[in-house]
From TrEMBL:
<protein>
    <recommendedName>
        <fullName>D-isomer specific 2-hydroxyacid dehydrogenase NAD-binding domain-containing protein</fullName>
    </recommendedName>
</protein>
<dbReference type="GO" id="GO:0051287">
    <property type="term" value="F:NAD binding"/>
</dbReference>
<dbReference type="GO" id="GO:0016491">
    <property type="term" value="F:oxidoreductase activity"/>
</dbReference>
<dbReference type="Pfam" id="PF02826">
    <property type="entry name" value="2-Hacid_dh_C"/>
</dbReference>
<feature type="domain" description="D-isomer specific 2-hydroxyacid dehydrogenase NAD-binding">
    <location>
        <begin position="108"/>
        <end position="273"/>
    </location>
</feature>
<keyword id="KW-0560">Oxidoreductase</keyword>
<dbReference type="InterPro" id="IPR006140">
    <property type="entry name" value="D-isomer_DH_NAD-bd"/>
</dbReference>
<dbReference type="InterPro" id="IPR036291">
    <property type="entry name" value="NAD(P)-bd_dom_sf"/>
</dbReference>
<keyword id="KW-0520">NAD</keyword>
């Protein structure tokens, strides 16, 4: 197969792709993120490395690339792109690009709540030396909903700290419990980590009924997508100081000023920071090169969604 024309989102990615590729698989690397006028030759694009953002390109922008054959995402989540990428174009998730940093955000939030670090930091600022009662992951029980790359990394870390972890997925598999078992087991869990993609099965999964089944003091962690949780139900539970939460995503997102989630107790709230750690962009470009090689040599593409 001949070399192909690629399109990436910015000059940094172009420089890295050209360096990593070394002229092996890419004939030309264009730069366009969907904003402004497309560059000359955009109609020759066969492989697109998408911009790293929540909103997908729209169909009109994708239509500017009639030769498009592969769309490689820079995120593990793919649900916003599924409905805009043509069915005859391979859509591939960015699996493995953000797994470690996302797991770190989840575990850091859990430990921050268990060890009373918000209170201890306030005491530090106020010059107060006062020990606080703290909990531990040792002996706790945790559900990790979403047994993919990110979920399994989180499960591994929690187990190192002494937690008993159950992976939960759409269907039962080896060492994975099906969604259908959630309801009867929620009351026994100390930590619930949401690491599943947003689908019709997971949208609103954590609602008032789900939260009511959790024991007092349980921690709900969302590093998935905001709409997996019913925001009003979560806010009510937090307001009653019955459960705690670690939220890196919200619904709505961006979370507007004045929203009640900002001021509720018992939570760690971060602005969707999980994936943007040092090195992720180069990992994305390395994945693109692997896909170019597989495409050129007739091997199946990695992490293909459709």
């Amino acid at each position: 197969m001949s070399k192909v024309t690629d399109c990436v989102a910015d000059e940094q990615h172009r420089a890295q792709v050209e360096e990593l590729d070394g002229g092996r698989w890419a004939a030309k690397v264009l730069v366009w993120d969907g904003s402004g006028l497309p560059p000359d030759g955009i109609e020759q694009t066969e492989v697109l490395l998408t911009p790293y953002r929540l909103e997908p390109m729209n169909p009109a922008e994708l239509a500017a690339m009639p030769a498009l054959d592969v769309v490689q995402l820079m995120s593990a989540g793919f649900e916003t792109w599924e409905h805009v990428v043509p069915a005859d174009v391979a859509l591939c998730a960015g699996r493995g690009l953000h797994g470690s940093s996302t797991a770190e955000v989840a575990v850091a939030g859990i430990l921050t709540l268990l060890h009373q670090h918000p209170t201890l930091l306030r005491q530090q600022w106020d010059g107060i030396w006062q020990a606080q009662h703290r909990s531990s992951l040792e002996g706790s029980a945790a559900f990790v909903i979403g047994p993919g790359d990110i979920g399994r990394k989180i499960a591994t870390v929690l187990e190192v700290f002494g937690a008993t972890v159950t992976l939960v997925g759409r269907r039962a598999a080896a060492a994975v419990v099906a969604f259908e078992k959630l309801s009867e087991l929620l009351a026994y869990q100390d930590v619930i980590v949401l690491a599943a993609p947003l689908t019709e099965a997971t949208r609103g999964l954590v609602d008032a009924e789900f939260l009511a089944k959790l024991g007092d003091g349980a921690i709900v962690v969302n590093i998935s997508r905001g709409p997996v949780i019913d925001t009003d139900a979560l806010a009510d539970a937090l307001g009653g100081a019955r459960i705690r939460a670690v939220l890196d995503v919200t619904d709505p997102e961006l979370l507007p000023a004045g929203h009640r989630l900002w001021s509720l107790p018992g939570q760690i709230l971060t602005p969707h920071v999980r994936g943007a750690s040092d090195g992720w962009d180069r990992r994305a470009d390395e994945l693109l090169i692997r896909q170019l090689e597989r495409r050129a040599t007739g091997q199946p593409l990695l992490y293909r969604v459709h």
